[in-house]
Amino acid sequence: MNAQASYPIGTPGQAWGRAEKADWRARQVRHRSYDVDVVGVIDGLRPRFDVVQYGELDYGADRYPLFAVKSREWNDSLPAVLVTGGVHGYETSGVHGALRFLDQYASGYAGRVNLLVVPCVSPWAYERIHRWNADAIDPNRSFREDSPAQESAALLRLVGPLRDRVLVHVDLHETTDTDESEFRPALAARDGMPFEPGEIPDGFYLVDDSEYPQPEFQQAVIEAVAKVTHIAPADAKGEIIGSTVVAPGVIRYPLRQLGLCAGITDARYKTTTEVYPDSPRATPEQCNQAQAVAVCAAIDYALARL
Q1: Can you give the CATH number for the domain in which 230 is found?
Q2: 51 forms bridges with which residues in the sheet?
Q3: Transmembrane region positions (predicted)?
Q4: Which tens digit of pLDDT belongs to each residue from 120-155?
Q5: Region of residue 229 (left: phi > 0; alpha: psi -120 to 50; beta: else)
C-alpha cells in the first residue's frame, strides 16, 4: 500500500512546502497540558532539587518554558548523569518515567553523581501527542550544529559545558502503534517518498551506539527492566525495526551521525530506551516504571565500574 496517497496532506511524490506544513500544523490539536502534567510536577520537586529554565520555545501564540532538574549539591568532582525524556513529545512514559525517577529514586544517588534531568524536551509535541515539533521537524534527528529544531538547539546549549564530563546518558523513548499508523506515513508524505510498512516490536528494547558499543552495559539494563516488563523479541529476520538484534532486546545505531539525542555527549555509557505502551502485556504503570528502572540500572552499572 502507498500510504502517501491516503495521507490527507500534500501530493504523492512531492515533498511538502510551506503551505503543506502550515496545513499540517493547523490540524494539530492540544490534548493535554504541559503546564499541569509536567511543570506542576517539577514545581513539586523544587524543595529537593535545583530547577533551571534553559530556554523557551517560541511558536507564535504558543510559548513553552524549558526546564531541567539538577542535583542540589552539585559537586564538580563527581561524574555527571544526563537523563532526557520527551524528545518525542507523544512518547508519554519517557516524560513520566523521568519524573518518576526524580521523585522516587534520585535521592539514592545524592553525593555519588551529579544528576541533570530534562523530563520533557518537546512540550509543544507533548501537548499534541505528536512526534514532530510545530515546524514538522523531528527533534531526534536534529541534534547537530545549527539545528533547525528549537528543542534540540536548546538542549545542546544546556548540555554543551558538560559534554565531556557526562558518564551516563539515558534517553527515554517509546515505540508505539501510531509510529506505523500516523508518524511514518506522515514522514513519507512530508518527504515525497513512498511509505513502506514496517513491524512494531512487542516489548522493551534498547538502542546502543554502533560507534562505541557497550554490550555488557546494555545487557545490565535489559536484565533490570525484564523484572518490570517483557523484552521485545527479534522478528523473523532477526531484527527490531529493521536493525539487527545484537543481543536480547538490543540494536545499534550510529547515534551522533543520525543526530540522535543519545549522541549529544561523550558519555561512556549511553542508551536509548524504547517501551511499547500499546502491548496488551504492559500497563502505563509498567511503562513508567520500566523507564525509571532503566535509569537506575544504567547508573548502578557505571558506578560499580569507577
Answers
A1: 3.40.630.10
A2: 69
A3: none
A4: 999 999 999 999 999 999 999 999 999 999 999 999
A5: beta
